[in-house]
TrEMBL record:
Source organism of this protein record: Thermoflavimicrobium dichotomicum
Residue ranges annotated for the ABC transporter domain, each copy included: 24-257
InterPro entries reported for this sequence: AAA+_ATPase, ABC_transporter-like_ATP-bd, ABC_transporter_ATP-binding, P-loop_NTPase
Keyword Nucleotide-binding: yes
Any Pfam family matching the protein: ABC_tran
MF GO annotations: ATP binding; ATP hydrolysis activity
UniProt keyword list: ATP-binding, Nucleotide-binding, Transport
Protein biosynthesis as UniProt keyword: no
The protein's name: ABC-2 type transport system ATP-binding protein
Length: 334
């Protein structure tokens, strides 16, 4: 079954446009002008139950607007949408019982009461039977290591402690689908890894579908085999991370350290017949970015004979770099 099935999903916002100057302000009073922003522009998304998918894009690409439609907060302007088999906006009451949501910046826990009291309130909201609640919560307390936090008010928790409690709260009712928005923002490496491990476990054990929105590509690398990339409201890539790297990874990066100073000009002259871009870190340190196709051996054959190379390091482009390049160049992937 499809957890998310969106066809030609579109959301437009009508925004008020003000005219400049005093006369403009006066005119605005009499006759307001509006313009339409197409935040999400006819996207098609199909996500199978049990998948873990990363949803990425630059600021303002339309990610939050999509998530708001998928969670029923916003009604789409047009298109068809079924999430867990429901129309999220029209069948909201039944629908929300089937999803969990964690927004890194916002809390779903009550600030001044103890964590366990928040959990109990959520148990009532979702009408979870006592036995099931105890068993499931017990398991999450164990994996997320939040036992000692249960009697603390949320406002006293550190960000990492709060995030672990947020995750437990969002999963108390065993939702089939979990929306995560920047779940590891501001967390240290160890806590990040614990949270990732936890997400992998619930995905495996409970088959929970996860849609992860983040600017942290390492989260996507650690968790998702599939990534959907949005740009100006349109999907520009939907596929595996491996394929993304293959198509967009480009060539390799070669770091060279020379025994003595060499000019950038000299290096460029020697390798003029190759698709290589040189960057200078210092007169003795250079980085050669090779386009796909040209090999490291081609590059070295132009240099090794009489260049005083002291050290050399070959690196693949990281996913982070690839994604940044796609954002910057804005080239849609075929
Ligand atoms: N309520 C609204 N009214 C008018 N315009 C809006 C509204 N919400 C979003 N927009 C506009 O829609 C576009 C997409 O915004 P959205 O918040 O979905 O992007 P995003 O990808 O989530 O960005 P970020 O990574 O910064 O959170 C932006 O141009 C934004 O200004």
């Amino acid at each position: 079954m499809l957890a998310i099935d969106a066809k030609e999903l579109t959301k437009e916002f009508k925004v008020y446009q003000s005219r400049p100057g005093l006369l403009g302000a006066f005119r605005d009073l009499l006759n307001r002008q509006y313009r339409t922003i197409r935040a999400v522009d006819g996207i098609n998304i199909e996500i199978e139950a049990g998948e873990m998918v990363g949803y990425i894009g630059e600021n303002g690409a339309g990610k939050s607007t999509t998530i708001k439609m998928l969670t029923g907060i916003l009604q789409p302007t047009s298109g068809e949408l079924k999430v867990n088999g429901f129309d999220p906006h029209k069948q909201r009451e039944q629908f929300v019982k089937t999803i969990g949501v964690v927004f890194g910046q916002r809390s779903q826990l009550w600030w001044d009461i103890a964590v366990q009291e928040s959990f109990r309130l959520l148990q009532k909201v979702y009408q979870i039977p006592d036995q099931e609640y105890k068993q499931h919560l017990g398991r999450m307390i164990e994996i997320l290591e939040i036992e000692k936090l249960l009697d603390q008010p949320v406002r006293k928790l550190s960000l990492g402690q709060r995030m672990r409690c947020e995750l437990a709260a969002s999963l108390l009712h065993k939702p089939k689908l979990l929306f995560l928005d920047e779940p590891t923002i501001g967390l240290d490496v160890l806590v990040k890894e614990n949270i990732r491990q936890f997400l992998r476990e619930i995905n495996k054990e409970l088959g929970t579908t996860i849609l992860l929105t983040t600017h942290d590509i390492s989260d996507i690398e650690a968790l998702c085999s599939r990534v959907i990339m949005l740009d100006k409201g349109k999907i520009i890539y939907d596929g595996s991370l491996t394929q993304l790297k293959k198509v967009w990874g480009g060539g390799r990066k070669v770091l060279l350290e020379m025994e003595k100073e060499i000019s950038l000009d000299e290096l460029q002259k020697r390798t003029a017949d190759l698709s290589v871009h040189w960057e200078s870190r210092s007169p003795r340190q250079y980085i050669a970015y090779l386009e796909q196709g040209d090999g490291v051996s081609d590059l070295l054959s132009r240099l090794v004979q009489d260049m005083p190379i002291m050290e050399m390091q070959i690196e693949e482009a990281t996913t982070e770099e690839i994604v940044r390049k796609i954002y910057q160049e804005g080239i849609p992937v075929a």
